[in-house]
């Protein structure tokens, strides 16, 4: 995007936040969650504009109920400080052991100062440090560098725990987590979440490498990242190499599907604002002017999930029942349409979803009649045919 157009887009996003409201940084965890639901325009525009969704949810009367406890936050900070102490000697030892044992041991390593004014300044300082380190032929540790990634036409500033530059000039992402690694393995769900976050950092580093390449070959960004965790029940660090190629490919594909933020912003009414200081009615109208795609998974990833769930239920959107049910229902987008199709009042009888719903409604009626009469349940011969949708009973439960 040309600089004047980008400046206009940023000014428009600043208007959406409200006068004097600073932008909330979009971290890798939020970015991975955004990529998991690329069809949600509401989240795209709010995250792109840097709106604090937690404050917005409180102002709407539907505060979020998830987040890291203060104890876990302090424990994580203490463990990270231990891993990166003494110029990151222990962290570099683990990188050498797990990812580059053939290289010279990192007896001494450079730790450049990455401080600068503002996120843009830190991004520029990080890129300069990476350029210098890539040609130094020695180990270099970048502690909490700042990276930028274009997300739906808006920059997201990301801060990995560390990036290590190897003597051959290649770059490795390091994720430091406070969950334990017991007997060499950790909780698969937590490892998966860490891999998705690391994949976002790998994408951002690849953008930096492409910009630094010039006419030559870009520095190599390694797709095996280092996950550092406490060993067993101690506070001693241990590590594991995690291949994030699959997560990187999925995240890149999902981010490419996101509608550009400026395109969504252009469709919004002039003067619209998402400042939590606005009256509740005005704020609710502003939020509802941006289309949302709620799914149950939002409850664990988005601060606005409770608000969006209430609206989805009130409108009878079948997305509130989950993606599998939504996929089974084809073109039926509301619970009212589903029930009408099941009762035979609407819908094309040749539609497989409609046919399955009507068969499920018949089975349900037979089962209720048998229960009222005190007779035996419906026989297996009356079960739904192979390939029919389970959506009927699911939707009937919503009546």
What can you tell me about this protein's structure?
By secondary structure, the chain is α+β, with helices and mostly antiparallel strands. Helices cover 48% and strands 10% of the residues. A five-stranded mixed β-sheet has the order 1-4-5-6-7, with helices on both faces. Strands 2-3 form a two-stranded antiparallel ribbon. Helix 8 (188-213) links the parallel strand 5 (171-176) and strand 6. The radius of gyration is 26 Å and the shape is globular. The two termini are 49 Å apart. Residues 380-399 have low confidence and may be disordered.
Q: Can you count the beta strands?
A: 7
Count helical runs: 16
H-E string:
HHHHHHHEEEEEHEEHHHHHHHH
Determine the structural class based on helices, strands and strand pairing.
alpha+beta
Report the major sheet.
5 strands, mixed
Summarize the helices and strands and which ones pair or pack:
Layout: H1 3-17, H2 28-36, H3 41-48, H4 53-59, H5 70-83, H6 85-99, H7 118-134, E1 140-143, E2 147-151, E3 154-158, E4 162-165, E5 171-176, H8 188-213, E6 224-230, E7 237-243, H9 245-257, H10 261-267, H11 280-288, H12 305-315, H13 323-328, H14 335-342, H15 352-373, H16 391-396
Parallel strand pairs: 5-6
Antiparallel strand pairs: 1-4, 2-3, 4-5, 6-7
What is this structure, in a nutshell?
This protein has 399 residues and is α+β, with helices and mostly antiparallel strands. The protein has helices spanning 3-17, 28-36, 41-48, 53-59, 70-83, 85-99, 118-134, 188-213, 245-257, 261-267, 280-288, 305-315, 323-328, 335-342, 352-373, 391-396, and strands at 140-143, 147-151, 154-158, 162-165, 171-176, 224-230, 237-243. Helix content is 48%, strand content 10%.
